[in-house]
Please model this.
Amino acid sequence: MAVALEWIGKQAAGKKPFLAVIWFPSPHGPHVATPEYAAPYAKYGKAKANYYGELAGVDHGMGQLRKALRDLEIADNAMLWFCSDNGGAFPLSTGGLPGGKKWLTEGGTSVA
Model:
């Protein structure tokens, strides 16, 4: 995230329009969260702590990005999209929607 934020800062300083695409590899298996993100979820067991910890890490990264856009005073002129890669893999939850990754059902392609 630091490299992306540095680059965004340079573009903002130059007053140039830009497109930045930042890919988060999480949550993807094998699920291994950093200890500080996994710790709050330890009571759910190691597997869930790592999965939920990865989600917390993505959330933190998005928070850093949103803060940087505000600090650079470009947030009001920025579009921020957050996209997934279509559905959860079994046996992970899809929020009760049928199907999952690689399925043409709500659990695989639904966009909220």
Summary: Residues 2-81 form one domain.
